[in-house]
């Protein structure tokens, strides 16, 4: 007789109890049923197919798009004495043949395979002759054309269902807003599969968003409260990764860079140090993190705005997998918004795709600007209702103040108009504050009526005003040229005095320090 799921969980994996929906999923799949599993990163998806693989006769075929991750999983399973192997392009012909023989001889519990490999006629005919226990489709959102990881081969995975209708299938993903969930079910013909939707909440992660002033300084202040702890700092570009890592190292922080442009061995060695040593801070582009299973990552810091809430949530989800208090910290300014809008506009994507990317970016900006509990906003994005305030985000801990910025907004908008709708915020703020720079004189902006009308507010407050005017759609960014600001249609009502503008007050230095020093 086979062991029970609970017994195997302890004996093989060494875990005392199932988490969340794991138990229900394992039973359901082990009994031969289909499942669609939506679980946040770090939620424990792997067990949902690894245990049924051991409970059912035959081998579980795991489709995974990430070759690096495959090898890690196989290594980890072998350490637990589970008979696992993988087939992908990194194996030479001999090694691949050995794996194939093991497969046919029934000597494997789990076989990880890349989708393009799985779909070859050769492999499919091998499967005809092998005892298959189940199919697991990991990272199932790759089937969605609108997701950021679209893999055309995923669309063809319906062949599994058509060719082996009796074999149960389990599809898993961490990146699923409701439309993507529907698309996964449809594309993989899993409409009849039971859905297991775990809460995406990560209660031990504290969310904070600060206005970008001097980003590196702000990062350093934030890191002071996390001395000796492991963490990830995300930057948008490779160059910024290098510079930031160097800057931190120069300030006594054990920081290492990681990006796709580095030599493979340097990259691998930095990743190894991050995984093995204590208290390493890895500064990386989003190339870093897929399949990184380090439980005690204490913080994830974003120096630049990510592209979507899903991306942000997946990246911050790498913090605190061990359940201990952790932080997700983001430094965000108007420049980020301008840059990302330009990147979308200037990409080769078609108009529909661009619209979608703008929508996703706007949702993330909405998160950054929100005065509500951050957790509520994040979870709402995944279709989850979180009724209470979480008490563990900056907005809950230091409720932001709104101020009547109608007059300031009007000054800012007229400054945009009077200067010809082609300058960026830095120059506009200079004009408003009565600056005497060469540029101001060169354009004759010192002779405008708006010159100096905003001297009552400091530059930091003005930055907050301009950023929020863009975020709220009162100003547009010129995405073809240099990112100058233009009046949006909606600004008219404000200029005519028909609409008031309430904005979030930018936290003062003292408050920022307090929030940086954490709990
Ligand atoms: P995901 O694939 O959903 O991101 P993993 O399957 O990699 O998550 O699991 C994340 C971490 O949680 C791993 O370190 C794993 O060992 C651990 N884990 C999973 N299930 C349990 C459990 N029931 N009890 C304790 N730890 C668990
Ligand atoms: Zn909150």
Automatic annotation (TrEMBL):
Iron-sulfur is among the record's keywords: no
InterPro entries: DEAD/DEAH_box_helicase_dom, DNA_helicase_ATP-dep_RecQ, DNA_helicase_ATP-dep_RecQ_bac, Helicase_ATP-bd, Helicase_C-like, HRDC-like_sf, HRDC_dom, HRDC_dom_sf
Listed EC numbers: 5.6.2.4
CDD domains hit by this protein: DEXHc_RecQ (cd17920), SF2_C_RecQ (cd18794)
Record-annotated Helicase ATP-binding domain positions: 26-194
Annotated source species: Luteimonas marina
Classification via PROSITE patterns: HELICASE_ATP_BIND_1, HELICASE_CTER, HRDC
GO biological process, one term: DNA repair
Keywords assigned by UniProt, alphabetized: ATP-binding, DNA damage, DNA recombination, DNA repair, DNA-binding, Helicase, Hydrolase, Isomerase, Metal-binding, Nucleotide-binding, Zinc
SMART domains documented for this protein: DEXDc, HELICc, HRDC, RQC
GO MF assignments: 3'-5' DNA helicase activity; ATP binding; DNA binding; four-way junction helicase activity; hydrolase activity; metal ion binding
GO cellular component, one term: cytoplasm
Boundaries of every Helicase C-terminal domain copy: 215-362
Name the UniProt record assigns to this protein: DNA helicase RecQ
